[in-house]
């Protein structure tokens, strides 16, 4: 069947239902705008949610094609001159916003009203297909209508067809107070696919609540694209670069990490030992020892890490701290070998990989001239 290209600007002009809806949108917007000026971002999101709902319910896009958004945009601007936010692109995002999250709610038409506190135990939003990353709690529901609209647009553009991935970034943006640039950075790093993916023995070595939290602070792989490493680097080179870029490293590790030191001196018996990096995680209330390996994983690496974890527990862990966690970050690993190796340890240990975006040749020299070279050039001239 050949779809006719109908001129929506002509047909909608005489559509009484459309004109009534336009008036209603104008009244609804000014009502929400007044509330938003005194209250919260959730009122504006509620308006966008309902507008997206209306677009889907009225099926104008199916009847009039893509030209509908352009027509609606112009009519809203005519009705409310000087009001921003009604571009054709933004209207499409409102439609995406509703379509993506609508299946999560049962008989729910007024999100912002519920946000204001009138939630009941029998009317909590339920996921259609419950999973670990689905919207299942009142707190998640509040978060969805709390982050800025611009954040939603960025998330929708990257996760339009994946509701779990979208909700993951909604939560992360709210929990970590991410600005737009930070959110964009994380959207481009495959964080959803990496978060909490390290191979660990946490479930068998930690209480259930603690093991879940510990798993969540891991990633696999870790993105070390901010490091400037030469070819044939070793563990000390990685360590030096991570310490030189400790702020970026802490951002990659995630929320709650505090840097305690590198080559942290441990005196055991008559000997000294030096773990690569030591951190404290405020959410876990636990020390985290990190060992770096510029080579593929080998089971023998865990013996050294296990020893460091035990030593930290004996010498630094207090009664209010949870058990120390060890994390081994390698060039790469065989997942089956890693799982087998972890089964023999009673200390909570995890194994991840790292990824680098670039390596400079060993004899790399910057293309920028040095001050001495500039001075010599000026003198020669």
Task: Explain this structure.
- The protein contains 19 helices and nine strands.
- It is α/β, with parallel strands linked by helices and 381 residues long.
- Strand 7, helix 17 and strand 8 form a beta-alpha-beta unit.
- It is elongated and about 90 Å long.
- It starts with 7 loop residues before the first helix and ends with a helix.
Please outline the major beta sheet: 7 strands, mixed
The general outline is elongated
Helix content: 40-55%
Give the rounded overall mean pLDDT: 81
Topology of helices and strands:
Blueprint: H1 8-11, H2 16-38, H3 41-58, H4 60-64, H5 67-79, H6 88-101, H7 111-115, H8 138-144, H9 149-159, H10 163-175, H11 180-187, H12 191-194, E1 199-200, H13 202-205, H14 208-216, E2 222-223, H15 235-244, H16 246-253, E3 257-262, E4 266-268, E5 271-273, E6 277-281, E7 286-296, H17 300-315, E8 325-332, H18 335-342, E9 349-355, H19 371-380
Parallel strand pairs: 2-9, 7-8, 8-9
Antiparallel strand pairs: 1-9, 3-6, 4-5, 6-7
Short recap of the structure:
This protein has helices at residues 8-11, 16-38, 41-58, 60-64, 67-79, 88-101, 111-115, 138-144, 149-159, 163-175, 180-187, 191-194, 202-205, 208-216, 235-244, 246-253, 300-315, 335-342, 371-380, and strands at 199-200, 222-223, 257-262, 266-268, 271-273, 277-281, 286-296, 325-332, 349-355.
């Amino acid at each position: 069947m050949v779809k006719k290209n109908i001129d929506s600007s002509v047909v909608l002009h005489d559509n009484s239902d459309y004109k009534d809806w336009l008036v209603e949108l104008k009244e609804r917007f000014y009502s929400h705008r007044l509330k938003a000026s005194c209250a919260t971002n959730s009122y504006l999101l509620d308006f966008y949610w309902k507008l997206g709902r209306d677009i889907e319910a009225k099926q104008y896009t199916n009847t009039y094609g893509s030209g509908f958004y352009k027509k609606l945009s112009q009519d809203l601007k005519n009705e409310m001159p000087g009001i921003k936010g009604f571009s054709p692109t933004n209207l499409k995002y409102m439609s995406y916003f509703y379509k993506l999250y609508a299946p999560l709610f049962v008989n729910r038409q007024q999100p912002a009203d519920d946000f204001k506190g009138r939630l009941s135990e029998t009317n909590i939003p339920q996921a259609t297909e419950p999973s670990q990353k689905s919207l299942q709690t009142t707190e998640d529901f509040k978060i969805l209508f709390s982050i800025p609209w611009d954040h939603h647009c960025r998330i929708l553009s990257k996760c339009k067809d994946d509701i779990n991935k979208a909700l993951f970034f909604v939560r992360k943006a709210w929990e970590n107070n991410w600005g737009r640039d930070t959110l964009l950075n994380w959207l481009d790093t495959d964080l959803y696919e990496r978060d909490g993916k390290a191979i660990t023995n946490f479930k068998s070595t930690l209480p259930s609540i603690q093991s879940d939290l510990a798993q969540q602070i891991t990633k696999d792989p870790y993105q070390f694209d901010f490091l400037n490493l030469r070819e044939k680097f070793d563990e000390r080179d990685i360590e030096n670069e991570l310490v030189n870029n400790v702020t970026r490293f802490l951002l990659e590790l995630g929320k709650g990490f505090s840097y305690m030191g590198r080559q942290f001196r441990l005196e055991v018996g008559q000997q000294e030992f030096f773990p690569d990096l030591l951190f404290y995680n405020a959410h876990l209330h636990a020390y985290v020892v990190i060992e770096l390996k510029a080579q593929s994983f080998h089971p023998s690496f865990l013996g050294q890490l296990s020893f460091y974890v035990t030593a930290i527990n004996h010498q630094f862990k207090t009664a209010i701290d949870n058990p120390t966690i060890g994390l081994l970050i390698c060039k790469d690993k065989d997942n089956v070998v890693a799982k087998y190796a972890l089964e023999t340890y009673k200390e909570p240990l995890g194994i991840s990989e790292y990824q680098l975006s670039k390596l400079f040749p060993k004899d790399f020299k910057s293309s920028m001239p040095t001050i001495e070279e500039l001075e010599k050039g000026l003198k020669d001239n």
